[in-house]
């Protein structure tokens, strides 16, 4: 039964045919879509594909395949000639033909035994329906082969086409052994030669006339018969074909074959070389597929493959772009060279060379890795394309009207993933069609559009691929799911009642769940979504369902790009190392210990950091994972960390202390000690800014280690539900390490809301006023009077018992940590209402002159990010910088430093003001100003107040550009410039650079006053010519430095 | 997987978890691992002690003490990780020490008591009485249920 098993040529034929057939479905569907507007190119392409299959099948004796493809070709030909309009029915028939064809190809060896009459009938029917005037005899001409009982079948259409074109049609018999191989000719070359002069329109190997293995070498005959159309006349055809004339026949007008030689002699010579040897056929036959229209390159490939053992279609094979292969080859070559280099330098013990060579190895290896990975990447379109067909067929079966829209076909993923998602995806699409989309009349009643829509989309997000299947169908009814879950006794009524709909919907992922009322052959057996879910989970993917009754369902599948190797950063939290995939990394931020308090703020009980004017929520990894908080002290020991909030280094201890009163001094002292130790370690905060899809956040870790390429390994089933981990890997030292799931972590901490609200607020305000946003703490003193304090100035806030406030020597103070904290009341300095008499007032603690002092307030209203217009006139007085409308309230801006220092006029300054200082008198002329360049109105008024109080006069500018122009106007009146760094239009560093180039400005002291600092930034500033970096709100430091520079000038 | 009665004698690996002598059909034990370098998995269920690298494979380690509701112990010399297979994965069971291998006559295995040292009986498939001890035979399937 097996004429040609194991034959290379058969394999080649199958490989090529599989290729040819693979795109057909989509093409047919496109043809159907185009309807009357036939796309010639497309139809021709399909025609050629089918034609090649037909031709090849004829060669290898797969008659069923040949016959089927032939019928399909006929229909296509009619379409091509615009004699037949490709209606849905016709395409459906063609599609089922394609199905059968691929089935036959899959089982090629036994294909001749497979029943195909039904499909043939369908194909015929479709023609007879639409084309009554079809050619008789199925449009076939049966050419009788001389000397044989068999006929060679040819479509009349085709035949006529050639005959009309003045072609002669010859029938010739070759012997593959004698005529081709022995003459040193390659079969393919031979076919090509023939095709140069004409067209092979039919061919066959005659298995019945093949020699046996027992025959002598010379007796082996592999006869091949060819029907050849050419314009070459019968007189020279034999020389063209290099065949004895007696083996060539010509087709006459009655479609009978006539010898081209003398008819009489021909009669005797009619028995061509295929000597009818009636023995059974034991040996596989050597012959050839591929007749027409094969590009030259392909032939070359086939020829090469012939010499080697070609790959079976069963074993997974992969088509690789030749460019990628070339690249691999180059890299392999380079690797060999480098190895030689390395060996040589090791031989010579040349360390320098060894180092160079090993660097090279490193480089080449990683390039090689990338190139190999590239060979594995395949577009997801290969999976998507088949859904067109599925939707098409199913909607026909179910009488639904559905349109499938596909996006993101080009998204590439690892081959293994692509292969593994095909089945789960198919299931999801089928579900959408079967359960999701309603019947047309129901849709019409509901006022929904027809056809219904199913959208398939693939896109990249944060290093993962998201695949969406979105339908606008009926949605999943959570009520029905609840009923089902109750029926199955998975959950109780109460439990179900508490579940949000979004959770209920996810129950469909449980094994044994099916909502289909009737079991169809499409779905409804209850072995669906759970299998989909577990298959996707195996791939490291997740599935998310969103559904609204009556609106539709969106299923979102999240998959890793590749299962192989990913670069990642290794971090330490607690005692364990963790890795963070590089794709999630945005940047690394290290906050030096002295800036931690300033940079990290609290919003709604969450820590945030302001990074380039954006609020970034902060998470402590140890908190996320719930590990004991540890930190390393100076001796390298791990100590439990009691900090509650990242930036707050003490509050816990103090809260405890205050709450417990003084009865536990001993204990409090211990804690105080532990605080001291903690302070002494001066630990900086390491923040990894990560991207979790649509939001960024900062992850605080204890330590950053190296980055390393890691191999992602899946976690066991006990750990799959743990959202914080994406998998695990094994590091170089053999220890297993967990991979953090950055998106999962943001979900655990439900981060989204915070950022959105905070950011939206800021953006809204920014748009509204286009002013610098400010973090303000709003407090109350008298019941109806509101005050605002820049949050950045506040060290912390303490709640105290008012009975603990002491007033020795007229100064308010409170004891804690064994020391006195000086307290000030706002009303003592400024002319405002007295503090509300509350039992538990608050103390705003801040640094002043190296010690801590507190301002008493009666209540905390809010901490807000806001940009406000500051009125620095109306309420301006000592201790009050001005006022602003905040939250519909006139709020006074407190000058904390003003509050705690006596009014300058009233008492001498603690420090000698330059005005009264004899040494500086000379420098400060009548027209000596300090130029303050600062975009924030708040800080401008702050500087103004501080400097004015110290006896200086200032000029103001809002950004670097304005700073330069103000300078140019008042060039000789300015003796010092104080500038912010972060400003619109031109920042402080740029301005300094520009100014330093001006004549006479090389000696001008330029001081930066900023809240954003870091070593890098500082170096940049110093390079530009800045003299000093000052912390924005340190009043003492500011005065001291200004004084110093005015007195001593630059560089002293 | 299940260590309930069969007619032929079966071999049991005996190990200690706190004060409970547990038995596991030796056919279920793939290997017993001495060198345990467990990476803690914070945020995971309590009974998951962590993960280990078993020749390149990441294996979840279940702390049987925790599973039985007993306070976990610090890792020590005697502890072993018993590797078993479940749902196509290797899983490690952290036990206090390995005791013995005994051959048991299935007829002597009785159904588990309603609870063993206060531990739910669903983790056990039977009780083997020997001369000097009561051995609780583990029901792997129930034990490893998520």
Count of the domains of chain B:
1
Q: Tell me the strand percentage band of chain B.
A: over 45%
Regarding CATH, which class of chain B?
Answer: Mainly Beta
User: Could you tell me the mean pLDDT of chain B?
Assistant: 85
Number of helices, counting only DSSP H or I runs of 4 residues or more of chain A: 35
What distinguishing features does this structure have?
heterodimer; A: 1052 residues; alpha+beta; Four Helix Bundle (Hemerythrin (Met), subunit A); 7 domains; six-stranded mixed sheet; 35 helices; 39% helix; elongated; disordered N terminus; B: 146 residues; mainly beta; OB fold (Dihydrolipoamide Acetyltransferase, E2P); five-stranded mixed sheet; 2 helices; 5% helix
Polypeptide structure, described:
The complex is a heterodimer of chains A (1052) and B (146). Chain A contains 35 helices and 42 strands. Chain A is an alpha+beta fold. Chain A folds into seven domains: 1-134, HPT domain (Four Helix Bundle (Hemerythrin (Met), subunit A)), CATH 1.20.120.160; 139-278, no CATH class; 322-378; 380-560, Histidine kinase-like ATPase, C-terminal domain (Heat Shock Protein 90, 2-Layer Sandwich), CATH 3.30.565.10; 565-751, OB fold (Dihydrolipoamide Acetyltransferase, E2P), CATH 2.40.50.180; 771-900, CheA-289, Domain 4 (OB fold (Dihydrolipoamide Acetyltransferase, E2P), Beta Barrel); 914-1048, Rossmann fold, CATH 3.40.50. In chain A, helix 1 runs antiparallel to helix 5, helix 4 (63-80) packs antiparallel against helix 5 and helix 16 runs antiparallel to helix 21. Chain B has a single domain (10-143), classed as CheA-289, Domain 4 (OB fold (Dihydrolipoamide Acetyltransferase, E2P)). Chain B is built from two helices and 13 strands. Chain B has helices spanning 64-67, 140-143; strands at residues 10-17, 20-25, 29-33, 48-54, 57-63, 80-86, 89-95, 97-104, 109-110, 115-116, 119-120, 124-129, 134-138. The A-B interface holds A 574-576, 624-627, 713-719, 721-725, 727-730, 734-738, 748 and B 37, 39-45, 48, 51-53, 56-60, 62, 87, 89-91, 144, 146.
């Amino acid at each position: 039964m097996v004429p040609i098993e194991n034959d290379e040529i058969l394999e080649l034929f199958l490989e090529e045919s599989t290729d040819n057939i693979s795109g057909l479905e989509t093409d047919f569907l496109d043809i159907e879509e185009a309807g009357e507007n036939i796309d010639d190119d497309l139809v021709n392409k399909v025609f050629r594909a089918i034609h090649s299959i037909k031709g090849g099948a004829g060669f290898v004796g797969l008659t069923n395949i040949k016959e089927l493809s032939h019928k399909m070709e006929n229909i296509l030909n009619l379409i091509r000639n615009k004699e037949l309009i490709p209606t849905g029915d016709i395409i459906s028939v063609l599609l089922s033909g394609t199905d059968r064809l691929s089935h036959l190809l899959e089982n090629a060896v036994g294909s001749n035994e497979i029943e195909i009459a039904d499909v043939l009938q369908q194909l015929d029917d479709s023609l007879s329906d639409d084309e009554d005037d079809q050619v008789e005899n199925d449009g076939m001409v049966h050419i009788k082969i001389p000397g044989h009982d068999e006929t060679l079948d040819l479509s009349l259409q085709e035949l006529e086409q050639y005959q009309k074109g003045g072609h002669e049609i010859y029938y010739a018999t070759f012997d593959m052994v004698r005529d081709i191989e022995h003459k040193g000719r390659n079969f393919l070359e031979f076919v090509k030669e023939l095709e140069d002069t004409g067209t092979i329109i039919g061919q066959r190997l005659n298995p019945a006339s093949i020699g046996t293995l027992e025959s002598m070498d010379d007796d082996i005959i592999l006869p091949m018969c060819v029907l050849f159309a050419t314009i070459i006349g019968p007189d020279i055809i034999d020389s063209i074909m290099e065949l004895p004339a007696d083996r060539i026949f010509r087709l006459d007008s009655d479609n009978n074959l006539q010898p081209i030689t003398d008819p009489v002699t021909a009669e005797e010579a009619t028995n061509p070389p295929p000597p009818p040897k009636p023995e059974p056929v034991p040996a596989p036959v050597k012959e050839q597929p591929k007749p027409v229209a094969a590009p030259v390159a392909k032939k070359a490939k086939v020829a090469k493959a012939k010499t080697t053992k070609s790959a079976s279609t069963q074993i997974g094979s992969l088509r690789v772009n030749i460019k990628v292969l070339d690249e691999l080859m180059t890299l392999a070559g380079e690797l060999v060279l480098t190895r030689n280099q390395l060996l040589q330098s090791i031989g010579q013990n040349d360390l320098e060379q060894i180092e160079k060579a090993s660097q090279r190895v490193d480089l080449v290896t990683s390039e090689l890795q990338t190139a190999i990975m590239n060979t594995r990447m395949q577009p997801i379109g290969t999976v998507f394309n088949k859904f067109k067909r599925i939707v098409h067929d199913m909607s026909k079966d179910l009488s639904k009207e559905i349109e499938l829209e596909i996006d993101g076909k080009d998204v590439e993923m690892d081959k293994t993933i692509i292969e593994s998602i095909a089945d789960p995806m198919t299931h999801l699409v089928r579900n959408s069609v079967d359960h999701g989309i309603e019947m047309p009349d129901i849709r019409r009643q509901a006022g929904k559009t027809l056809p219904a829509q199913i959208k398939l989309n693939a896109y990249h997000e944060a290093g993962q691929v998201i695949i969406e299947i979105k339908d606008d169908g009926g949605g999943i009814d959570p009520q029905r799911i609840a009923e089902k879950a109750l029926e199955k006794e998975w959950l109780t009524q109460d439990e179900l009642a508490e579940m949000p709909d979004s959770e209920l919907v996810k129950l469909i992922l449980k094994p044994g769940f099916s909502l289909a009322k009737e079991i169809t052959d499409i779905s409804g057996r209850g072995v669906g979504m759970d299998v989909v879910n577990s298959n996707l989970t195996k791939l490291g993917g997740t599935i998310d369902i969103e559904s609204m009754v009556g609106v539709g369902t969106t299923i979102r599948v999240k998959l890793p790009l590749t299962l192989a190797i990913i670069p990642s950063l290794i971090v330490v939290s607690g005692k364990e190392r963790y890795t963070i995939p590089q794709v999630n990394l945005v940047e690394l931020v290290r906050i030096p210990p002295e800036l931690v308090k300033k940079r990290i703020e609290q919003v709604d009980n969450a820590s945030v950091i302001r990074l380039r004017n954006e609020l970034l929520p902060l998470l402590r990894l140890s908190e996320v994972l719930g590990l004991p908080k540890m930190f390393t002290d100076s001796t390298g020991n791990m100590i439990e960390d009691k900090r509650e909030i990242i930036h707050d280094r003490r509050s816990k201890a103090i809260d405890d202390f205050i709450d417990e009163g003084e009865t536990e001094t001993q204990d409090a002292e211990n804690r105080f000690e532990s605080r001291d130790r903690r302070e002494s370690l001066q630990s900086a905060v390491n923040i990894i800014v990560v991207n979790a899809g649509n939001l960024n956040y900062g992850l605080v870790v204890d330590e950053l280690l190296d980055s390393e390429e890691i191999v992602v390994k899946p976690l066991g089933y006990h750990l799959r539900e743990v959202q914080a981990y994406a998998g695990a890997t094994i590091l170089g030292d053999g220890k297993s390490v967990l991979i953090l799931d950055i998106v999962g972590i943001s979900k655990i901490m439900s981060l989204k809301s915070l950022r959105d609200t905070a950011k939206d607020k800021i953006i809204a305000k920014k748009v509204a006023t286009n002013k610098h946003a400010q973090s303000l703490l709003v407090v109350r003193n008298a019941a109806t009077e509101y005050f605002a304090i820049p949050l950045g100035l506040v060290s912390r806030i303490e709640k105290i018992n008012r009975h603990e406030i002491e007033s020795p020597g007229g100064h308010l103070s409170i004891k804690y940590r064994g020391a006195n904290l000086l307290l000030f009341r706002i009303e003592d300095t400024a002319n405002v209402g007295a503090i509300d008499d509350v039992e538990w007032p608050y103390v705003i603690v801040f640094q002043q002159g190296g010690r801590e002092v507190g301002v008493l307030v009666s209540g905390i209203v809010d901490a807000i990010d806001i940009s406000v217009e500051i009125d620095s006139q109306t309420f301006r007085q000592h201790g009050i910088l001005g006022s602003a409308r905040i939250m519909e309230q006139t709020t006074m801006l407190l000058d904390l430093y003003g509050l705690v220092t006596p009014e300058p006029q009233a008492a001498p300054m603690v420090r000698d003001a330059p005005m009264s200082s004899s040494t500086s008198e000379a420098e400060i002329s009548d027209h000596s100003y300090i130029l303050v360049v600062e975009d924030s109105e708040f800080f401008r008024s702050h500087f103004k107040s501080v400097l004015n109080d110290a006896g200086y006069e200032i000029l103001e500018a809002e950004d670097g550009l304005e700073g330069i122009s103000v300078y140019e106007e008042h060039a000789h009146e300015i003796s010092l410039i104080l500038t912010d760094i972060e400003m619109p239009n031109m920042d402080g560093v740029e301005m300094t650079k520009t100014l330093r180039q001006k004549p006479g400005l090389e000696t001008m002291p330029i001081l930066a006053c900023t809240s954003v600092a870091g070593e890098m930034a500082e170096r940049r500033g110093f390079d530009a010519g800045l003299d000093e970096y000052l912390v924005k709100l340190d009043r003492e430091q500011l005065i001291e430095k200004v004084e110093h520079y005015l007195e001593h000038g630059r560089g002293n | 997987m299940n260590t309930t009665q069969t007619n032929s004698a079966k071999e049991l690996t005996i190990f200690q978890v706190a004060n409970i002598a547990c038995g596991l059909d030796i056919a279920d034990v793939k290997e017993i691992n001495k060198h345990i370098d467990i990476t803690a998995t914070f945020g995971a269920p309590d009974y998951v002690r962590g993960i280990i690298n078993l020749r390149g494979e990441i294996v979840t380690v279940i702390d049987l003490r925790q599973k039985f509701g007993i306070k976990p112990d610090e890792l020590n010399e005697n502890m072993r990780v018993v590797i078993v297979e479940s749902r196509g994965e290797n899983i490690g069971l952290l036990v206090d020490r390995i005791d013995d291998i005994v051959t048991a006559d299935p007829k002597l295995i009785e159904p588990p008591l309603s609870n063993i040292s206060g531990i739910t009986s669903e983790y056990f498939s039977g009780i083997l009485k020997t001369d000097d001890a009561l051995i609780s035979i583990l029901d792997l399937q129930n034990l490893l249920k998520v």
